[in-house]
């Protein structure tokens, strides 16, 4: 085959593949609720990326690095400060969207205290960010509160499994 035909052939292959895939994705997995669920899960992945390394340093599994620790903690703070209320749409809990989310319906209950739990994390992250670059002992002193804030919200508002 000449280059030109190869290119055309590839283009046809690619467009066939996407014609097949796109409508399926939109129907099952790409409406506003699905997008909001993915976005909030992405936010939690950022949390876990930042605190994962901080915990590894605290446990001695990763070498402590003051600049990196300070940056990770500052990034955690920045993400906790985003106003992401729009990602928690009605009908985006794990009964309405089985298999896609672990968010429990209790999040949306009238007496839900998820806002307080989010605030607790914000405060803990801020506390950590103030000292994370001041040495391993300082990091160890504040990181526990962050881990507790994560766990406490998961206990009440996140299902074990999808
Ligand atoms: C205010 C409540 C709350 C706090 C605080 C919280 N989480 Fe979560 N987390 C949730 C909920 C609810 C889900 C399920 C989201 C979903 O599946 O739609 C979740 C999901 C996750 C996930 C899975 C994301 C995915 O891709 O499915 C990770 C990882 C995670 N949290 C890590 C953390 C870490 C680390 C912290 C602390 C730094 C934290 N969370 C703090 C409520 C919280």
**Which architecture of the largest domain per CATH?**
Up-down Bundle
Please identify the structural class as seen in this structure: mainly alpha
Hey, roughly how much beta strand do the residues contain?
A: under 5%
CATH top-level class of the largest domain: Mainly Alpha
Please give the number of β-strands: 0
Helix-strand topology string: HHHHH
Q: Give the domain tally.
A: 2
The total count of helices amounts to 5
Average pLDDT reading: 89
Describe the 3D structure:
The structure is a single chain. With 162 residues, the protein is mainly alpha-helical. The protein has two domains: 1-30; 32-157, Four Helix Bundle (Hemerythrin (Met), subunit A), CATH 1.20.120. Helices cover 67% and strands 0% of the residues. It is built from five helices and no strands. The chain starts with a helix and ends in a 5-residue tail after the last helix. Mean pLDDT is 89; it is low at 22-27. The site of heme C (HEC) has 22 residues, from helix 2, helix 4 and helix 5. Heme C binds next to helix 2, helix 4 and helix 5.
């Amino acid at each position: 085959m000449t280059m030109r035909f190869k290119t055309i052939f590839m283009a046809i292959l690619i467009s066939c593949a996407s014609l097949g895939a796109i409508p399926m994705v939109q129907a099952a997995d790409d409406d506003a609720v699905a997008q909001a669920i993915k976005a909030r899960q992405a936010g939690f992945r950022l949390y876990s990326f930042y605190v994962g390394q901080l915990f590894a340093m605290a446990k001695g599994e990763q070498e402590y690095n003051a600049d990196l620790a300070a940056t990770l903690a500052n990034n955690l703070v920045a993400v906790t400060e985003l106003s992401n209320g729009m990602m928690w749409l009605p009908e985006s809990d794990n009964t309405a969207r089985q298999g896609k989310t672990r968010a429990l319906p209790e999040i949306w209950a009238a007496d839900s205290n998820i806002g307080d739990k989010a605030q607790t994390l914000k405060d803990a992250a801020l506390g950590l960010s103030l000292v994370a670059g001041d040495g391993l002992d300082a990091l160890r002193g504040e990181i526990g509160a962050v881990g507790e804030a994560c766990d406490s919200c998961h206990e009440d508002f996140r299902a074990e499994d999808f």
